[in-house]
Amino acid sequence: MTDHAETAIVERPRSDLTLAVVIGAGGMGAAVARRLAQNHRVLLADVDMAAASRVAETIAVDGGDVLPLRCDVTDAGSVEELAGTVEELGGFRTLVHVAGLSIAANDFARIVEVNLRGPALVTQALVPLASPGSSAILIASLAAHSVTAPPHVAAVLGEPEAADLANRLARALGDDATPQMAYTYSKIGLRLMARREAPTWGWAGARIVSLSPGLIATPMGRIAYAHSAGKRAMFARSPLGREGTMGEIADVVEFLASDRASFISGTDILVDGGLAGALDYPTAD
Hints:
This protein is of the alpha/beta class. Helices cover 45% and strands 13% of the residues. It is built from eleven helices and seven strands. It has a seven-stranded parallel β-sheet, with helices on both faces. Helix 3 packs parallel to helix 4 (108-126) and helix 5 (151-157) packs antiparallel against helix 6. Mean pLDDT is 92; it is low at 1-10.
């Protein structure tokens, strides 16, 4: 007689669904992967394989088809392996690049490498696998709306795949080459990349956009408050009086990945609860 006291979860591949590639298994990446798993197979890539596997297991409990994969987006060889896996899986419908470091990392070069060069390498490797209807969504930041890159800095940001990107950006910024500026300019670089690469993706019948969250309640974001008086001051100015949620960002990602957004490409979507407006047009207390 079979003992049914313990029932194992049988994972069944969802070959009937198109593939979503989610880069980053942290708080926001996990939220995005969970949402997209409702109507995609998901390839969840992270430099921390254990973290990707944990998220994949939780989504599998709900019937999702999630394949965890180790990928260091700052390593060209690792990104090539990612692209090889995507090709083996038949290409992709949706790419969401979430992985990034906050200023709490306190390392100028590392922030630039992970936040900008990494997404550049990933999009460059995957665009040949895009097909009509595919989309790429790059998670930028409200910080990318806070300053305008001067021409000599924008020129550096225009070649984000360069092996010496961090050094070139540091030289261009001079004394301003701080972790805060690494974060800000790396996110500006993502906005510029989405705009610049729209024609390339469009030739494949695909789209690329950046999405700039404002203050969002995430584990990494919570740590950043301790390192940034500016972030604490911004929270005090938030028109809605709260942070956004990871679920609200997943809502926007879901829309941008859908056919409902089929004419949106080469632009940035700001999701900040009106904070940019409050910062641009301050009112008296």
